[in-house]
Amino acid sequence: MINVIGINPCRKLSRRAFEIIESSDLIISGERNSHIINKKIDFYIKDLKSTVEFIDKNINKNICIIASGDPLFFGIGASLSSRYKMNILTETSSIAIAMSRINEDYHDAVFISLHGRSINGLAQRIEKNRKIIILTDDENNPSRIAKYLMEFNLNYEMYVFENLCYDNEKIYKLNPEEASKMSFSRLNIVYLKSNKDNYIYPDDDDLYKINSNITKSEIRDITLRLLNIKDNDVFWDIGAGSGFISISASKAAPGSLIYSIEKNKNALRNIYLNSRRFHSDINIIDGEAPYCLDDLPDPDAVFIGGSSGLIDDIIEYSYKRLRPGGRLVLNIATLNSLARAVNKMEKLFSNFSFEEVSVFKSSRILSTFRFEPVNPVFILHGEKDA
Fold first, then answer.
1. Contact 317/293 with Cβ under 8 angstroms?
2. Which of 91, 156, 185, 239 has the fewest CB atoms within 10 Å distance of its CB?
3. From CA 370, how far away is CA 386, in angstroms rounded?
4. Res 210: pLDDT
5. Taking the CB of residue 180, how many other CB atoms lie within 10 A of it?
6. CB 76 within 8 A of CB 45
């Protein structure tokens, strides 16, 4: 039998929790919680893999796992519940204690765990939310989070809760600049609060760019629909230019992993500036496709906006790396490139089509209007067989 017991230093063990611990053959715990129960620990939790291995070796014994607060909320219980049949006894979470300290309702808050996870992509995940509660670790500590908020121009008030329920408990209310200069106890929770949304969508006129030759909004909308990028997808934006497509993709799918690939040094700088300005934490790759793509994870979607004469090679390489069901979309403005791309994609994709998109913009002339054409664009799209 496996029992998972949530404990909280603010509260005494319940009678039921005490009885389960006393009757256990083996006790598993993290180092911090071991001091609370004052019992011999048979295995200290370091990582999920070694914990699972220990449990499997002793699966016929009566095992008790000591966890913090609610074991099913970003805890060991959630990680093990799909593997084992367990009895779980929950306790008040540290988050509930923290919010009660400042009399803050949090039913509408977003919960994010950076414990053992990368901070990459946090900007686009939180920018639409006014309340965010973050579980931290040694690397993603309050100071690191504060510097990240400043880098991506995200305006939040920060609460840092240190050592909740211990004698050295402290609560700080700070702005990111103040928090970025401080050191904090390892045991902490961060709460971000803003009185307004931080969300901002890029406009053509607001972008840092080399010239006006960027993907126009009407073409961009069609392109993004065909790419159909979803959370957890890997997306390659090849020949990223100003980064407009990458940034737009991060808004559409904040949980996606985006690689913005560009070889032009000025364009790379613009991508960096635009991504920070518009709260878009994307991976910027300095290199020429397809030669710089080997170390990237296989994509679910690829957009080719620029190829520097290597259109055939880039299409073929992208197709080979695309995951089953993956989408490849190209924007092409010249007939020579169109002929080469159609020829290559028709050979590779059984599900392939393309269209020409023309846009006309209104322009005032005297007391009336006329239409002025924008250069037509050919949009090619193929889907790899599942």
1. yes
2. 185
3. 47
4. 64
5. 19
6. yes
| CA torsion through residues 70, 71, 73, 75, sign | positive
Write down the H helix ranges in the chain.
Answer: 15-22, 31-37, 48-57, 76-80, 94-101, 122-126, 142-151, 176-180, 217-227, 244-252, 265-277, 311-321, 335-348
pTM score, whole prediction:
0.85
DSSP-derived 3-state class of residue 311: helix
Domain termination residue (choose one: 171, 193, 215): 193
Kind of pairing between the strands at 351-365 and 368-383: antiparallel
Is the domain of 64 the same as that of 160? no
The per-residue pLDDT for range 158-203, each reduced to its tens digit, is 999 999 998 999 999 999 999 999 999 999 999 999 988 888 887 7
Look up residue 40 and give its amino acid.
K
Number of domains in the chain: 3
Each residue's pLDDT tens digit, 303-332: 999 888 899 999 999 999 999 999 999 999
Per-residue pLDDT, 359:
86
Token output for 124: 């686009």
Structure tokens belonging to residue 382: 């193929």
What CATH number does the domain containing 143 carry?
Answer: 3.30.950.10
